[in-house]
Amino acid sequence: MDTKISMNITQTHINTLQNIISRHASYSLNCKTWCITIVSALGVILFEKRQCINIVVILFPVIVFFLLDCYYLGLERLFKDIYEDFLYKLKTNTVSVNSAPPYGVRRPGIHFGNILIYRRVT
After folding, report:
1. Number of domains in the chain
2. Got the DSSP string for the chain?
């Protein structure tokens, strides 16, 4: 059996990775929109009741959605790295059926802004 990957399988793999990346980007955007919606609703409710002491309640959804957004951004960056690694292997003609997939090489850690901390899997 030929160890080189056929064009059909290669195109399917590239399309799958692109779909996963775009899905994680949309999840990240949904986290931001839900956070704004919930924080605005809580702000209006607390403002109407004139309970400024309970403004700390607004911080809870901000923190939760921040962590969830960091998770999705980390996954998105992980799959972008996998995508770029796969394209590099295609250019150098080193991709074969028997080669180990790059999945599981890195797991997303904590993402703060542009800093992503990866945990290496041994």
Report:
1. 1
2. ---BPPHHHHHHHHHHHHHHHHHHHHHHHHHHHHHHHHHHHHHHHHHHTT-GGGGHHHHHHHHHHHHHHHHHHHHHHHHHHHHHHHHHHHHTT--BTTSPPSTTSEEEEEEETTEEEEEEP-
